[in-house]
Amino acid sequence: MKFNEVSKLVAGIPHTTAEKGKVLYDIIIENKFINCLELGFACGVGASYISAALDENGRGRLTSVDTPAAKTRSPIANDLIKRVGLEAYSEFVFHELGYNWFLMDAIEKGSRFDFCFLDGAHTWDVDALAFTLVSKVLTPRGFIIFDDLDWTYASSPTMKNAPAPELMRKTAGVRKVVDLLVKPHREFEWLGEVAGMGIARRL
Ligand SMILES: C[S@@+](CC[C@H](N)C(=O)[O-])C[C@H]1O[C@@H](n2cnc3c(N)ncnc32)[C@H](O)[C@@H]1O
Q: Any idea which GO molecular function terms this record carries (predicted)?
């Protein structure tokens, strides 16, 4: 599916913007990725962009993981992907314990992904582990994209009043993961930032 077509179908639905969607879409097409993973799918907008790129490539599969809380979204991701007409490419996993537990199983099963869009908790504790686990299932030359590098509880319109210790409220967790774990990692190459997202490739 062409980019303009999918971006019209998901316009106005949170969260991934068309600018970010275009980055995901182009990377999947340019690199002909096949086995894609998304951690945190909410209403399924990112999943729609990723699935549209797989459709354009003519093959591939996206596994997207969230918690059962994503069933309370409007629209629900399963309905959005059907509306977009790309349900053949996407599987939504509502994991009761979240994506790090999904990744435990994926490592045990020997699953492999060549692309990962990490767009979930955005906190140091959850996403430092997520990156470490993703590094075990990402194929050589595979990409991981980190959304919301500078997101904090304190700056979030919806989370700023959530009860949390000050250190957690003020720390940009994804930025810490990138600076402390991804950039120094000997098996990853840092490719840079675009539209508030960071991009790294496994060597
Ligand atoms: C910013 S939204 C994702 C947006 C989505 N990628 C898109 O393209 O629109 C973040 C999502 O991550 C989910 N999330 C947060 N922590 C999680 C965890 N530990 N495991 C699974 N999902 C999680 C939330 O439920 C939420 O739906």
A: methyltransferase activity
